[in-house]
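Deliverable D5.2: sample structural annotation.
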Amino acid sequence: MAQPRYEWRPPERDWREQDLRDLPEDGNRYEIIDGSLHVTPSAGPYHHELADDIRMALRQNAPADWRVIREIGVRVPAGNLIPDVTVLRPGAPGTGCGPTRRTSLWSSRWNRPTAAVTTA
């Protein structure tokens, strides 16, 4: 069976967070960086296992009122990122794309295939 195609037209302005709602849920990761749309394919099993291990280690060592969350949207100036792991300060919103750099203590994303750590 042929896969359904999604046809889109880029906005005539910089991409915004609300534009993400119009994109397909096709397993790709859609992020906005400096008003530009960045699309990456879903990660493989090793990548997810590594992120799970790091999340678990952080969670076990974080204070009780801090949250360690996988793949949650984080608002940044002119964008929205989806780090692999984010540590949220107490009181940070945890739904939708609510957290910001101010409410996040640490965010990390591993660049495939080198698994280099980047922090926000």
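Annotation notes: The beta strands are 29-33, 36-40, 67-70, 74-76, 79-81, 85-88, 104-111, 116-119. Residues 112-120 have pLDDT under 50 and may be disordered.
The annotation will be released with the project's public dataset once the embargo ends.
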